[in-house]
């Protein structure tokens, strides 16, 4: 059995967040989606649970970070090409996200990213095949 990851993120408006990520091409698993949460499918083993803040709060005793004011996590996703990195950032901006940081080109690795509607930071990168030795 492979290990799956479910990243849980608090959101203010579930419908708006679901629409945002749908515009980036993500699908949602209806089995784990309701009026309080939406299960975004990133890959066969990676999922992002978008949880209304009030529902998210039931899973922790700590205060919920305001991602527009502080950084609680950086999500980094690999892409199959530099063009795909730029395409996803363009889609995010068109859907209402922001990109407060410039792209970074390290030769063997290229990255850019966006902040979603709730301020969560999404880093997208492409690494040249063979850049990392086994």
Mean pLDDT: 95
What kind of sheet is the major sheet? 4 strands, mixed
CATH architecture of the largest domain: Roll
Judged by helices, strands and strand pairing, the structural class is: alpha/beta
List low-pLDDT spans: none
Overall tally of domains: 2
User: Reading side by side through the largest sheet, how are the strands ordered?
Assistant: 1-4-3-2
Count of distinct strands: 8
CATH class of the largest domain: Alpha Beta
Along the chain, the helix and strand elements come as EHEEEHEHEEE
Percent strand: 25-35%
The CATH topology name of the largest domain reads 2,3-Dihydroxybiphenyl 1,2-Dioxygenase, domain 1
Q: What's the helix count?
A: 3
CATH superfamily of the largest domain: 2,3-Dihydroxybiphenyl 1,2-Dioxygenase, domain 1
User: Which quaternary structure do these chains form?
Assistant: single chain
Write the topology of this structure:
Layout: E1 5-11, H1 14-23, E2 27-29, E3 37-41, E4 46-52, H2 53-56, E5 74-78, H3 82-94, E6 104-105, E7 109-115, E8 121-127
Parallel strand pairs: 1-4, 5-8
Antiparallel strand pairs: 2-3, 3-4, 6-7, 7-8
Structure, explained:
A four-stranded mixed sheet has the order 1-4-3-2. Strands 5-8-7-6 form a four-stranded mixed sheet, with helices on one face. The model has no long low-confidence stretch (mean pLDDT 95). It has three helices and eight strands; from the N terminus they run βαβββαβαβββ. With 134 residues, it is α/β, with parallel strands linked by helices. It folds into two domains: 1-58, 2,3-Dihydroxybiphenyl 1,2-Dioxygenase, domain 1; 67-134, 2,3-Dihydroxybiphenyl 1,2-Dioxygenase, domain 1 (Roll), CATH 3.10.180.10.
């Amino acid at each position: 059995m492979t290990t799956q990851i479910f990243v849980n993120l608090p959101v203010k408006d579930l419908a708006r967040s679901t629409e945002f990520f749908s515009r980036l091409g993500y699908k949602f698993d209806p089995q784990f989606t309701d009026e309080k949460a939406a299960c975004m499918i990133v890959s066969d083993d990676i999922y992002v649970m978008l949880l209304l803040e009030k529902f998210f709060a039931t899973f922790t005793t700590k205060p919920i970070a305001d991602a527009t004011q502080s950084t609680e996590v950086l999500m980094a996703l690999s892409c199959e090409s530099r063009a795909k990195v730029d395409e996803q950032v363009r889609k995010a901006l068109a859907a209402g996200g922001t990109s407060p940081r410039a792209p970074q080109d390290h030769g063997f690795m290229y990255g850019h990213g966006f902040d979603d509607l709730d301020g969560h930071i999404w880093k997208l990168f492409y690494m040249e095949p063979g850049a990392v030795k086994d």
